[in-house]
Amino acid sequence: MVDLNDKVVVVGAGLMGTGIAHAFASSGFETRLVDTSEEALAKAQKSIHGILDSGVKLGKITDADAAAAKARLTTCTILKQGAEGAKLLVETVSENLAIKKAVFAEAVPVLHEAAVIATNTSALSVTEIAASVVTPERVIGMHFFNPVHKMKLVELVLGIATDEATVAASRAWCDAIGKTSILVNESPGLTTSRMSAMLGNEAMWMLQEGTASAEDIDTALRMGFNHPMGPLELGDLTGWDTRLAVLRYLHSTLGEKFRPCPLIIKMVAAGRYGRKTGHGVYKYDDKGQRVLGSGLRASNL
C-alpha cells in the first residue's frame, strides 16, 4: 500500500514538523517540508542534518545512508508547490483551528487523489478540521511524539468520517517508518495529551505551592515512575505556550480539573516558553542544554 516512490509533504517546520520530516526522509521517502518562514526551514534542515550526522558517528547509519536521506529532503515556502502529487500530507502548524483548516483547503486539491490527509493536532477536533475538505473520509489525526526520532508511538485519531481505507493506509505509513500506531476515537486531548496535560499542570501547581523544587519534582517522576523525562522538563521541551493552549481547550471541554495553573499563564506572558526561547522552568544555553541548578523554586516565583 505504501511505496518508496510515494511523496510526503510535512507542513510546518517547527519542532514536530522537523522530527516528522526526518522520520520520512530517513526511511526512504521523498519528503518536502513546507513553511512560510525561510529561517524556520533553514533551522529545520540544519537540525535534521545534525540528527543524521550524529547517527553516523554513533554507527547507527552509514555515511551513504545519511547523504541519501539529506538528498531526499527538500524545503519549500509555497504550500501548493510542496504538496503537489504527495500521497501523504502531515500538517504540524500551530494549534489553531482556522490555520489548520486554511492549510487543508489550499493543499488538498493538489495532493494525489488517494492521499492520506493527516493532522498532528494534540487536542483539536479531527472531525472539525476535516470539514474544510470535500473528502473528509481521507482525513485522520496522526499524532507523533517529541523527539520523533526516539519516540516510537503514533496515535491515529479517527474523525467521524474517517474510513477504513484511510486507517489501513495510515497504519502502513507508520509501519514504514518504524512506528507503533494505536487507534483513538476522537476525544479532547486524545489519550497521551490529556494525561500529559494533567500531569504537567499538577506539577506546576506543586511548584507554585512550594511542595518541592522543579528539579526534585522531575526527579520524583523519573526515578519513582521510570518516566524518561520529568513533567516540567517535558513542558519546557514541548513549549509552555503550546501546553497552555491545550489546557485552555481541555478546560473548556472537560471542565475544572484542567484549569491552567496561574504559573503557566505567568510564564507564557513573560515569553518563557521553554527550550525554544532559552528559558522556561529551567534556563538553557545557546546549544539548548539545560543550565544545572537553574530550575524554579517557590522562593523565586
UniProtKB/TrEMBL annotation:
The record's top EC class is: oxidoreductase
Q: Which NCBIfam families match?
A: PRK09260.1
Tell me where in this chain the 3-hydroxyacyl-CoA dehydrogenase NAD binding domain is found. Answer: 7-186
Which EC number(s) does UniProt give? 1.1.1.157
Q: What name does this protein carry?
A: 3-hydroxybutyryl-CoA dehydrogenase
InterPro entries, per the entry: 3-OHacyl-CoA_DH, 3-OHacyl-CoA_DH_NAD-bd, 3HC_DH_C, 6-PGluconate_DH-like_C_sf, 6PGD_dom2, NAD(P)-bd_dom_sf
Q: Where is the 3-hydroxyacyl-CoA dehydrogenase C-terminal domain?
A: 191-284
Site location (Important for catalytic activity): 143
Molecular-function GO terms, alphabetical: 3-hydroxybutyryl-CoA dehydrogenase activity; NAD+ binding
Q: Where does NAD(+) bind?
A: 12-17, 35, 95, 100, 122, 146, 276
Q: Which UniProt keywords apply?
A: NAD, Oxidoreductase
GO terms of biological process kind: fatty acid metabolic process
Write down the superkingdom of origin.
Bacteria
Q: Name one Pfam family in it.
A: 3HCDH
